[in-house]
Every structure is written in C-alpha cells, then in structure tokens.
Design a protein that fits this description.
Elements (H helix, E strand, L loop, with lengths): L12 E5 L3 H7 L4 H22 L3 E8 L7 H24 L2 E6 L7 H14 L5 E9 L1 H17 L10 H5 L12 E4 L18 E4 L9 H13 L8 H12 L1
Parallel strand pairs: 1-2, 1-5, 2-4, 3-4, 5-6
Helix pairs in contact: 1-2, 2-3, 3-4
Length: 252
C-alpha cells in the first residue's frame, strides 16, 4: 500500500518490545523456551495485521545486547528459533510483499546465522508493502555510539567539519536513516520502560503499554493499540490550538 493510500491516523512506523514470553511459559508450567516459540506465532499475526492496516514499517526488538546474559540454554534456543523461523517465514514474507531487514551488531552471531540473515534480506529486498525490521543484538546506546564513532572517523579523515555536526548528521548514521522515526512504541508484558530500544529514534513516539504477555498479543490487541494511537493528538511542541488551526487551513 502506498503512503498516500494509508489511513490518516495509522502510524507510519510501529516499534514493539515483545516482552513476556518467559513469564507466559512459567504461568503455564512450561519451560521459558516454550514461551519464545509461542511468541514467534504472535510475530506472524502482528506482521499480517500491519500489512492489513497499512503500517509502513514495523521494528521488533527480538534480541537485545543484554540478552546474552540469559542462561546459555535459553540463548541457544533463541538462536535456533531465529534460524528455523527464517527458513519457514521468508516465503510468506515474499507473498505478503514484506521486506525484511535485520539491524544491530550482527558480528556477535555465528557465520551461519549471519548468512541466513543476508539470504532472507536478499530474497525480500524488492518488497514494498511493509518493511519489517528485526532488532538483534541491538541496543539504543550501541546505535548512538556507533553513529558517533562514524562521525569521529569522518572528522578525522577531513570528510566532515565539527561545525557540520548536528542532529541530522547523527541520525543519518544510525541503523535505519531511510525510515521515519517510530510514531507508536508498544511494549507488552506489563513493564513500563523502554529498555534501551531505539533511544534516539523514539524521542517523539507515542508510548503504549499492554499487560498482555507477548504470546497473547494477537490481532485484536494490536488493533486496540492502533485505535489508541488514532485518538492521540501529535503536537511536537505545538499547542492544541495551533494544531487545530493548521488542520483547518489544510482542509480549507
């Protein structure tokens, strides 16, 4: 769906922290790894609903830079789940015209898994209906740090003057400079924090917290988050009166 066809109050970019897989499993007397497998099914539902509603980009926090501290067995299952999900879902993404991108410090992953990431990205590169970004070994502070490092290298090489360093210079060196910042930031699982996810890009995002565990976050729950977003007024520092006047001028 082209941007011009998108319903006016649907966010262009949705970011989600998919929290609660382990607790969902514990509540049912299951191993934590069962929660991660159930959570993979919830991803499919949200991706399909994003396509249906006309969301332009969806970024999912799949594995943070802090998640390496989890029990080795759980990390191993997460890596296996990455590989098996890519193998199964790539064709479905192609059929739904979804482009896959993997963002984060991928150097920590195995060569085999990195190759799978690259193959999946290549297979979906021409798709345009939805850009699905999976954040893996990602951290917001890491993202800003690597952008600052790139700026420092450019200054040292004489490609950039210190006086030219502004917000745009930082933004264009972050993980996805070609996409709009998230309009809607969702976190499931009942926690109310952003946990080092998209720190720079979420400066003006609308925050939405759900008590549902991620495996429970289905199409209806996602629609409820979109409806909540549609009722909010995005002011970006302006007053409500200024927004109303601007809308009236645009309509008339």
């Amino acid at each position: 769906m082209d941007q011009g066809d998108r319903p006016r109050r649907v966010p262009e970019h949705v970011a989600i922290i998919m929290d609660g897989n382990g607790r969902w499993a514990n509540q049912r007397g299951l191993p934590r790894t069962a929660g991660h497998r159930a959570g993979a099914k919830a991803v499919r539902a949200v991706v399909e609903e994003s396509v249906r509603h006309g969301v332009g980009a969806l970024t999912l926090f799949a594995f943070s830079s802090e998640n390496w501290r989890r029990p080795p067995g759980e990390v191993m299952v997460l890596m296996e789940l990455f590989m098996s999900t890519l193998q199964v879902e790539v064709q479905r993404l192609v059929e739904h015209d979804v482009q896959l991108r993997v963002i984060g410090d991928l150097s920590a992953f195995s060569e085999r898994l990195r190759a799978q990431f690259e193959d999946a990205e290549a297979a979906t590169r021409q798709n345009r209906r939805l850009i699905l970004q999976v954040a893996a070994n990602y951290g917001g502070r890491w993202d800003i740090t690597q952008a600052v490092r790139a700026i420092a290298c450019d200054v040292a090489a004489g490609r950039l003057g210190p006086e030219a360093i502004d917000e745009a210079a930082v933004a264009e060196r972050l993980s996805f400079p070609d996409l709009p910042d998230p309009d809607l930031f969702i976190r499931t699982g009942g926690e109310k924090r952003i946990s080092n996810f998209l720190l720079w890009q979420s400066a003006y995002a609308e925050l939405y917290f759900s008590d549902l565990m991620w495996p429970e976050f289905d199409a209806d729950a996602f629609a409820a988050a979109l409806n909540d977003f549609a009722r909010r007024q995005r002011r970006f520092g302006l007053t409500s009166e200024q927004i109303a006047a601007s809308a009236k001028a645009a309509g008339g």
